[in-house]
Amino acid sequence: MVLKIRINREQEVFDKLIKIGEDLKTTAEALRQLINALLVKDDDMKNSSLIKIKSLNEKISMTREELLSVIYSEAFLPDFKEAIVMLTQDLYRASASAKDAGRALTARRVDEKCLTTLKESLLSYISIILEASDKVVLMLSLLPKDIASALKVGKEVQMLERSGDEIKDMIITRLYDMEDSLHLITLLQTRDAIFFLDDILDSMESAVLSIEILYATLKS
What we know:
Elements: H1 10-40, H2 43-73, H3 78-106, H4 112-142, H5 147-177, H6 184-219
């Protein structure tokens, strides 16, 4: 059985969720550009990518406020309202974590040896984040049509999050293996950036859980 959401005022809510998802995907792309810029020592690209990430975070914040205004001004069912608010906050946290990762990576010049050693793992990590953001957009676009199908895509997001955890653990291990040859600030800076990248995937996974709650609400 295909479970659909009845479309009326809800459509505006879902349109805004999709908009946030698309901007989150663009944020992930800008974050990959930033990492590539660090690897090739392109300061102009690095700075422009960071500016883009910050701008997108502000854009997502504004869309979030608009969405919450609709949610709280209309007579939605309480459980539906709560699930959508949770979902919106999850998506915003993913965006905020991307901004924090960008800031951590650009706060000071990262040691060249550190970047070279972690290069392949970092590129794999950001590729997983990009793929997950693409799945999030698809998941959100399916919400008003068929939540069960949206959750199937959500399961793929969860699998990507687990893959990201494996890469994160490998990067942290490699980072600590270099601790004797790295400046302490470089080690802490890089570790913070990796944890912020991990927060992006964690927030995307939380978004899936929020949709599971929404699905359970509509079934009951």
